Amino acid sequence: MSDWTQKLPEAAQEYIAGRRLDEVECLVSDLAGVAKGKAMPASKFGKQKYFHLPNSIFAQTITGDYADMPDESEFTEPDMILTPDFSTATAVPWTADITIQVIHDVNDQQGNPVPMAPRNVLKRVVKLFNDQDWKPIVAPEMEFFLVARNVDPNMPVIPPMGRSGRRAAAKQAYSMSAVDEYGKVIDDIYDFAEAQGFEIDGIVQEGGAGQVELNLSHGDPIDLADEVFFFKRLLREAALRHDCFATFMAKPIEGEPGSAMHIHSSVVDHKTGKSIFSDAKGGETEAFLHFIAGMQNYLPAVVALMAPYVNSYRRYVPDFAAPINLEWGRDNRTTGLRVPISEPAARRIENRLPGMDCNPYLGIAATLVCGYLGLTEKKLPRPEVTGNAYIDSDELPTNLGDALDLFSDCAPLREVLTPEFCDIYEAVKRNEYKEFLQVISPWEREYLLLNV
Question: Domain named GS catalytic: which ranges (predicted)?
Fold first, then answer.
């Protein structure tokens, strides 16, 4: 092995052991969470310490267009410096050649972190905790649909065909036989994850037709965001091997529940190694309540990060186990902020608002920044809700335009996340929203064409 391969994590070294490494994929996440970068021969990768990409990749919309920049006269599309973070290196087990992928750090030409890069946004939020001798811990839950191949956007998305020869059925939550219907896809998911060194905490059938939930073990926020970023690629590739798609749309199928990325959060004291959410007797601390209060006060302003597309808001409907409120409660899935049953050392808060369509770096950053502001402001939350929290709640924005207005107007968040990031994110999302509003839907043609 050459010197640089010695820097790779154990799983990556095991993957290439005794074999010729052909290619390295050099990756960064754009605002949408799409992998951008370059692929190069391994021999060339080993001879260069960095490579360049223009900063315009963070101005690109999900349609491939470019947003209007806040100040076009100052935008010259300079190159950024991308250097490998070897701790992220992992196998690409679905390729024909022996390939690894590496997430890269993104800096400007003066060596400063590029503020628009989503991974840098999360790093900045984590540093806020670290500066207070706190260590945030997260555990994401990934919900997604396996669906039949959809090659015509004008046609509705439908469930995949199972091994029984029938399409996957809805309302089979936690059914093992439902998971067995597409067991070959699940087998490849496990095999790919093992090759990449990822630990899956569990896989279950969710309530939608072909809907699956995959849970990851708790850990460092940046590491877990990297894993979700990689997992989205992994899941798509596993599905394609078996003639179906894996989709992370928040609401891909009409009448079915949406897909969330619930985020469990806790905070550990660096000095003691113990949770700041539990006291010596195992009871809840004021810090625990402050964290909840911060989420209640600031989550509306970051909904635009957790629900980034027009489709995202189709998930926010009652009676589909979806969060449509900012209430909190213990073991209460009708609340947007749920406190799961746990031992005192594992006391945590589950944010049920983010959709699986959000960028994992930004969804986790949004969750943690609200909690951080709560810890610093030391306010108390509203009383716990012990009944059905779905009733009479209208605190959250119901469309992307309103969510962006709240995001733009929140000064504390702009200061923490940086105006540079907030401005470009808003510009990209305003552009996407404007493009959507130009599309005439089948519903409009069905009911308005001849009736109004």
Answer: 118-452
Residues 26, 30, 34: CA angle, nearest 5 degrees: 75
**Straight-line distance from the first to the last Cα atom of the chain, in angstroms, rounded to the nearest whole number:** 72
User: Which helix (H) or strand (E) element contains residue 181?
Assistant: helix 176-181
DSSP state of 70: T
CB-neighbour burial class of residue 6 (10 A; exposed 0-12, middle 13-18, buried 19+)? exposed
pTM beyond 0.90 = yes
Residue 129, C-beta contacts closer than 8 angstroms, at least 6 positions apart: 135, 136, 267, 368, 372
Q: What's the rounded Cα separation, in Å, for the pair 208 and 206?
A: 6
CA separation (Å) from 7 to 10, 49, 52, 152, 234?
9, 13, 22, 44, 23
Q: What are 147's strand-pairing partners? A: 245
Q: Report the run of H or E that residue 264 belongs to, with start and end.
A: strand 263-269
pLDDT tens-digit profile of 268-325?
A: 999 999 999 999 999 999 999 999 999 999 999 999 999 999 999 999 876 666 778 9
Torsion of Cα atoms, 339 then 344 then 348 then 350, to 10°: -30
Specify burial of residue 201 (Cβ count, 10 A radius: 0-12, 13-18, 19+).
exposed
Q: Which two tokens stand for residue 403?
A: 């969510």
Q: How many Å apart are CA 418 and CA 118, to the nearest integer?
A: 12
For residues 56 and 269, what is the distance between their CA atoms, to the nearest angstrom? 39
Over residues 152-182, the pLDDT tens digits come to 988 999 988 887 777 777 666 656 666 778 8
DSSP per residue, 319-332: TTT------EEET-
Report residue 169 as tokens: 């059925």
